[in-house]
Structure prediction request, 285 residues.
Amino acid sequence: MMFFNPFTDPVTDARINFRVMNTNTPAAMAPAIGNPTSETKVKKFIIICVYLPDILLDLKTGCIIQISIRNMFKIYTDQRPYFITFQLDNLLEIKSFVNKCLETVNSDPRVVSAYRHLNLTETDGRTVIEMFPASKIYKFAVERVAVFETPPYGGAGIHKDGPLLQDNNARIYGPHNVSFNIPIEVSDNKCVTRWYDDDQFINFENKSDGKYSRNVFLDYANTDKFKASAETILPDSCAMLVNTEKWHTFYNNGPNIRRILTLRLSKEERSKIDFLSVAETLFKS
Ligand SMILES: [Fe+2]
Prediction:
């Protein structure tokens, strides 16, 4: 009967023969035995990598090879499932770049008097996405890199972002579950964003054409009669993950213009990845 040892002997320096002798190919007439004629030096070069969920560490050099791409942002305010505000280390860099882009940007045709929707060019949009750290994890829609420009006393009624339909080319334009909002120009604390749960609006009709968003109440300046589940005023110093599949509204109730960069997931992902999934991936709870 044969017995097998499931474990090999431990590998130690003492067990590794680093002195490898290389022999010349023997001539046909040479004896099959003899002294080796040259020596090949073998470098003791072993890189040991340990994979942890968030860090890849090179034990040979002690260097961190890969910084975590999960939990990449520090939270300021955590109001799941409505919004999360967070620190964006390169916020000033992104602001500066987007402000340059805005010098030549054209208005989106879907302009309404309460706000302007400014799309960046594809080239600029791609650059902005590359600057945003979460693009290491998610695909973003290049054609949807845009700035919401809200004039004094402008806003948007109670709505959810994105339609629930297919266009003629059979491409699915589903709801936008999340938006990454980055302040480009916020000069006061007059603009309040509010979120609501579904139960208040169960019997409300859609007031929009449904191609861009779903609206249940258009009068953004008079939403006090509804009970908000969460509200915030986005300051100039942090970014925000917004649950845009919750009913929400904003009202810029002040004399200053307000510009917010909004980044959306790709068409393929935007309706499949929800707010809580993104929150768990990007933030420490
Ligand atoms: Fe929205």
About this structure: The two ends are 57 Å apart (CA to CA). The CA atoms of residues 117 and 148 lie 5 Å apart.
